[in-house]
Amino acid sequence: MSENRIGDIPIPLINYIYLIKYRKSPYYDIVKHLLMEMEMHYARAGREGSEVIYTVNPRMLHEAIEEKVKSEKVTTVNICRTILAILYGSRLREDKDFYVTTTSGGRKNYHIRVNSRTLNTLKSFL
After folding, report:
1. In sequence order, which residues have a C-beta less than 8 Å from that of residue 87 and are 6 or more positions away?
2. What is the DSSP string of 72-122?
3. pLDDT given at position 2
4. Cα–Cα distance measured from residue 81 to residue 77, given in angstroms and rounded to the nearest whole number
5. Which of 3, 71, 83, 95 lies at a CB distance of 3.0 to 4.6 Å from 26, suitable for a disulfide?
C-alpha cells in the first residue's frame, strides 16, 4: 500500500508542519529549542562559511526538553515527526542538507549539515 502524500511530504507530516507554523505547543517549542541548539553549535565552530554536522538523537532530546516543555505530547515519536516536518517543510534536501541513520536497535538519528544557508532556511520556515 502506498503512503498518502501531498507533493513530496507525507500527510502526517503536513499536520506537524501546520502545528509548527501556527506556533502550537509543544511542537513549536521543540523546533525553537533545536534551532537555538544548532545556532550555538554553529557559533562554537566559529568559522564563517564553515559547516558542522548537528546530530539529533530524539531520545536524548526528549530527556532534555521534557523539563522545559511540560506536555504529555512530548514523546519520542512526536519529536521524530516534528524534526522531519521542519526538515521537509523548509525544503531542505535529503542526503545533501540532512540524512537519517538507524541504529542496530531501530532508533533513528538525524544529522543536519548546519551552515548559514540551512540555518536561514530553517529560521525562515518559522
Report:
1. 94, 97, 98, 110, 112
2. TT--HHHHHHHHHHHHHHTTPPBTTTEEEEE-TTS-EEEEEEESHHHHHHH
3. 44
4. 6
5. 71
